[in-house]
Protein 1
Amino acid sequence: MVQADALVFAFEAPWKMNSTPQERQARRSTRIPCEIPIGLTSLDEDRPFSESCLIILINPQGCAARISRPVGIGTAVRLEGLSSKTNVTGRVVNCISLGEFEKSWLLGLALTEPGNVWGVEAPPEDWGHLKSL
């Protein structure tokens, strides 16, 4: 299980320095830095793949994940290996190259059904009534 208090304590200041108070308020919920290795599998027959990636930022609406290949925006995906043991699906909403020499991409993934699929035991207050799934 991810312990939100420890993660927020360790990373709160650097993440807040990169956004304005207005930007933080516009977000639906606090983003928590983390390192969660998962399998990511395409549900799109036209864009098949299945490979490991590393989730580096989470909130109830989705996550940011580092992966070794570009993935098309709009691709439906399944997140495998989460501690919640539920069938978690989402859609790629962003894919950014991390540089010519990095050979990795940053994906923005929006969950099909928002929730605490990450197993955060003590989520931030603005995650509201969402329970761990």
Protein 2
Amino acid sequence: MTRFVEGDDTIGFAQPLGYLSNQWAVCLPNTYPASIPWEQFLATQQRLRANQYTYRDAQPGAPRVGHALLQGIARCGRCGARLWVRYRGAQGERPGYVCNTNAIELGEPRCQEVNATDVDPLVERLVLQALEPDKLALAVEAFAHLTRERAGLDHQWQLRLERARFEAERAKRQYDAVEPENRLVARNLERHWEATLRAVEAVERDYEQWQGQQTTVLSMADRQEILALGQNLPALWHAATTTPADRKRIIRLVVRDVILDRTRAPEQVWLQLNWQTGATTQHWVPRHVTRYGERTNVAQLRERLHALKATGMQDQAIAVRLRTEGFSTGTGGPFTRGIVWSLRKRWGIGAVRSARTQGGQWPDGSYTLAGVADLIGVHIRTVHTWIARGMLVPKQAYKGGPLKMVLSGEQIGALRDYVAQVRRPRRAHATGSASEATRRVEAGEGSRRPPHQRGAERESHVDKPCVLPEAVHTTTAAAGGHRSVC
């Protein structure tokens, strides 16, 4: 149906009439020959309205090719509005359901956003379970029971319509039977007749609204087709030829809408499935959290990080310990050294004071290289020389970390005896200055000599066997890659 609209230059054009058939003032179907039957026209109009994305009118819209299974049937559990679908990522691989209605219309903050990867697998599993052959038969029987109830309610509506029309017809007969001379009586009867006609229109409007809220009636052929489909549905669902739009159509056959709410509990999403049969089921699913503030164990993680750092552990060791204890990052991944450092800076957890200011000894009893040098009474370069020769084997928790020396009392005594031995004057024909140079080279202090002298002295001692006592050789092997050559 079209209407003629006059323009400014008196040239008219036709526009489609934007009113529904139940809003027309006069409707006389099958009066003139038509291209399609009246019933087919109504079915087409209803299909077109269902394909429109009018969320306020509870229209889910046509299923599209996106991977979000609840497109068009997801509702916000806070405000009740339809949820929009948003695809994130370069290829749209992360779909989500967003409540933007109040933000767009009222300028208010966004209600919520739910990741489709959290709720879609559960909905898929529930739908496939509901469409199993035995459960499908029960659902069809329950649907038939609802159909019988609907038939009883429809009969009651028909009685209401019949009574309203009878009252309107009787008022019409009374008005027709009055004499024209009785104007006062005629006006009263006319008002009564108009009131009964308005009552008939109100009942018809309520009846049409009730019909639109009812489910579709299944015939016997439809039941047989549904039961046959239940036998092959899992294979059909996972087939490569089945598109996301096909899966959405299957879901809409059994699910009317799904209510989502991610604000009722931390790290969880509450959802309610409203089935086409009228039944409702409520479920909880874990939610993918990307912020530490939304996690339930953030206080426990912070306390644990404080405790581990207080023991003197480095960031790499803390990351390994947190992984073994079951902690995960804000995105659900494993902890790394950089993430631990970032959390310490964010939460104000400072580094442990260096062991150099604590007498050269770490809290676990091991020594730094400077601490070993002070303890034995040599220069720190001598300690580096011993490590290069394999005379000492330090520990290293991770690459780039500090070196730690674990020494017992016997090992410390053996090192001091060794230093005293190489410092003892020798009876040689060389002069005193040569003896002093020999002592410095044997003690590892010849690195202060000029390069040409250090090279000559190193050649004279390159084949000298290590006379360090056996107690020093048993130092625990380190993670730093050093090995003993004695």
Protein 3
Amino acid sequence: MRADFTAPAAFDPHRHAFAGAPHLPPLSPPSRPRPAPPQRSVGDRLREALMTLGDFRGQVLRHSEKAWASITFAGARHTLTLLFAGEEAVAAGERFLAALPDHEFAIAGHIVADAAITEADHRLLPTPRLVVQCELLLLEEG
């Protein structure tokens, strides 16, 4: 069987089946799921807690972390060097020095078992600055 097709004289090859339909918005490309925000590490949360304690006037110059464990506990010892530069920052750094050893930290899943200032270098000239080194022992809860 053979079928012949002859286009009518008024045939428009660019006209499609929905030409008379109400205007439809263009299709958008399929959306991709948003990537999950990066997981904040314990070190990130500790630095944020220390910056809060220092009224956000300090700057972390160095942060190192070393695994620590005993028979009953596991965790890490964090050593940080912070810089407080300028008069207002130095005043905040002095409050930081006084508050750190007894501060109650709220770091999810961890307990700060020990927090100590190991070194403080306070200079007034040419501009006031305070460089603080502290060590914190964080133990995993549970």
Protein 4
Amino acid sequence: MVIETEPKASASTSVSNVECDIKDRSLADRGRRRIEWAEAEMPVLRQICERFEKEKPLEGIRLAACLHVTAETANLMRALKAAGADLALCASNPLSTQDDVAAALVEHYGVATYAIKGEDTDSYYSHIVAALNHRPQITMDDGADLVSSMLFIALDRLNDVHPKVRDWASQLTAEERHALLDDVIGGSEETTTGVIRLKAMEKAGVLKFPIIAVNESDTKHLFDNRYGTGQSTIDGVLRATNILLAGKILVVCGYGWCGRGIAMRARGMGARVVVTEVQPVRALEAVMEGFEVMPLMDASRIADIFITVTGDLNVIDRHHMEVMKDGAIMANSGHFNDEINIPALEELAGGRGQEVRDFVEGFKLPDGRTIYLLADGRLVNLAAAEGHPASVMDMSFANQSLAAEYMVKNGPSLEDKVYVIPQELDHEIARIKLLSMGIKIDTLTEEQKKYLASWESGT
């Protein structure tokens, strides 16, 4: 990995000589326009940014973020920088980076950024090393790769990390590796997948600092996961394939908030939606919402399109692929590319497939069928499209920014556990969002507040 330290010529004034590893600095002006376009749809974060500019609640705090490097994330970085944070940003997925945005972050906003769309696994983990080398006091994760790497190093479990991380950590003494955690106040996590990993760390007793599970906030998962993932996933599938959804049988694997959103949007475009689940309550919800629910093996024989959103391993496995129709399309919108068993698909096809369109790979099977995989099984909404609309990320990143502020204020008094952002902050984000939309709501009268706090009144 080459770390650029000398800025190249730019069409406009550069403010940055920060370290970076990005594709092309000359894309910075285009990236800035994209960032400013997104900002117009992010009034809650803008209001927080204005307060941060005055109060500087993160002054001098070293913050490392492993997030999708998009225009929306760039506005989060601007808010954190306004708060006084010393930032390093790396990508949380090899295919989700917007290269022009990465360039703008370096050139126009002075944020040390390590992200290139399409980077290989070695580069991905080299970028995580760059974030670790920042010696963060606050972490901000999307999938928990940054935190897990820190913990593996500090626990001397170097065989559990990627070779690039291991090589870097091996150059440190045992004392230096353990000291990686000394200055850490705490962190936050954006995704369902990351929260699952962090709760497993807590249960195993290896989580060594407090984490706020931003994903658990109502203003995050009820909107980002449902409306954001719902719209952007369908957007990614359509951009990659240009197929007509109307009349197609589309299987949604998993009926959490992301699955609900995808199922809702697919039905709205005329698809015949089938839901597969392992959790009976969610399966029952899907039935009550009017969706057909069946085992994935049964759905595999009839479906045209499959989308996984479970956060689990090998959801679509070899035996499912063996019975799929010719021309079946598989996509994933869960965080990691583990949900579709790609090695099994390669084994069935006798090797890698053939690229037939950008982000569409066709795997020819011996019996003549072709099965298509989108975006190498990675997040199709970010790989083939642009991720969630800025309006919904406004609330998610408001949560992230306030979580960082809360952690700096309260982290030293918290235990090494996974926490939820305080409800009053969650409600404040919703209140500001409503006001920005010109919507007013009622408030309780004093009489009503007293009634709700009492037990005496009965039938």
